[in-house]
Amino acid sequence: MEKYFDASYIWNSIPVLLPFLKVTFLVAGSSIVLGTIFGLLLAAAKLSSIKLLQTLANLYTTIMRCTPSIVLLFLVYYGVPALAENFGINLHSIDTAIFVVVTFTLQFAAIMSEVIRSAYLAINRGQFEAAVSVGLTPFQAYRRIIFPQALVIALPNFGNGMIALLQEGALAYTIGLIDIVGKANLIIASNINAHALEIYIALAIVYWVLSIIIEKFFAMLEKFFGKGKKTLETT
Amino acid sequence: MNYQFLVETFFVALSGVPIALLVTIVAMLVALPLGFLLALTRVNKIPVIHHIAKIYVSFVRGTPIIIQIFIIYSSIPLLLKMIFEKYNIAYDIYKINPIWYAFIVFAFSTTAILIEVFRSALSTIEKGQLEAAHAVGLSTIQAYRRIIIPQALVVAMPNICTATVNLIKATSLGYAMSLPEITLKAKVAANVGYNYVEAYIDIFIVYLILCSTVEYIFKRYEKHLSKFKVAKA
């Protein structure tokens, strides 16, 4: 075994890889913020009474759900500059990270729109009516009554979406982003493909730990925000 | 935009569909029974196995599938090489068809996803159902086959649909194992004239058709299954 597999490579590569998590976080973080905003708009479109907006938003979600991240990534990476060229804009020199953020924003928005929509629908309409009837304005009713309750319902799905985004983000290396996966591939290339397995295992460990942290963090948040929630313990 | 290339490559991409579907179906056929059995160990808290299953699920859900591919694709040849050297089997491991690796990788990850799907589906079935089945004289296996599984399946169906669609999408990562599926085929065709935009539009359309069809089939099947649901709350 020692000839092919050397566990010390795993531990030695982790400190080299960790600084590149910054890039991963930056890209994932921007996509989450932008995607949530866009997702909110999509959810609003889905819940609106205008049929056309509803159809468009639903179509968008279906298309995003049916497209593999890697295909979307390349479509954005090659397609957007080609499209912009038609209008005389040169986008070939901008940073690859921008393309990655655009891709995952588009994708995360689709996930988020469903999360937000289902959380909103889970809140009984009577809550809003009750709030308005005691003299709150509709905005106050949303901010104080609907939003805090919807948040608790949305949190687990939001956490899952975040973990999914983090993992899909691992594909950003394919268009040349030097994040943690990109760096790992560089290390492997500089080793002439030797000990690739150990480096990949190191990567897996980093991602695994990250996902567990996110999961635990969201479980904590849920407990914190859900402290006022009282439901029948049926299940 | 090269429209002729766009049309030609569409059929190139389409020719990768059988491989993508084959990988999906084989992975599903392995993952469905295995996932169900492991979900049972989780529900019934069978010592040791249910802990292993828990760690396994956590690992698969916690790591990107591309990294699982990397790990499996680079570790299996090493393992096989050691075994072959030990027993003096003269077989070139680099001649193994990449589809075998794809079967292993995707069955590995889908099983973990399905464990969670079945576990949550089984937990929606009340314990009283099993007790009632026992009380009228069914054995545990009969109770599961006739009472528990049909009900759990209805609950699990939407999630199985999502898992299948995700699996089809994940086969696009087969390029990392040089598996000639939809993405790789179209990409290779694009390499000649750098027509990447056209190629990716084709790939995009093929996946869109494939996944919406699968979703539609599942929706139809769900409707069929929900007919058996008599009591509505």
From TrEMBL, chain A:
Database matches in CDD domains: TM_PBP2
Taxonomic superkingdom: Bacteria
Coiled coil (UniProt feature): none
Transmembrane as UniProt keyword: yes
Main location: membrane
PANTHER family: L-CYSTINE TRANSPORT SYSTEM PERMEASE PROTEIN TCYL, MEMBRANE COMPONENT OF AMINO ACID ABC TRANSPORTER
Name this protein carries in UniProt: Amino acid ABC transporter permease
Automatic annotation (TrEMBL), chain B:
Superkingdom to which the source organism belongs: Bacteria
Residue span(s) of domain ABC transmembrane type-1: 17-215
InterPro entries per record: AA_ABC_transptr_permease_3TM, ArtM/GltK/GlnP/TcyL/YhdX-like, MetI-like, MetI-like_sf
Membrane-crossing residue ranges in chain numbering: 12-38, 59-79, 99-118, 147-168, 199-218
Keywords: Amino-acid transport, Cell membrane, Membrane, Transmembrane, Transmembrane helix, Transport
Subcellular location(s) of the protein: Cell membrane
Main location (coarse class): membrane
Membrane topology, from the record: Multi-pass membrane protein
NCBIfam families: HEQRo_perm_3TM (TIGR01726)
PANTHER family named in the record: L-CYSTINE TRANSPORT SYSTEM PERMEASE PROTEIN TCYL, MEMBRANE COMPONENT OF AMINO ACID ABC TRANSPORTER
Similarity comment: Belongs to the binding-protein-dependent transport system permease family.
Protein's name in the database: Amino acid ABC transporter permease
Organism of provenance: Lysinibacillus agricola
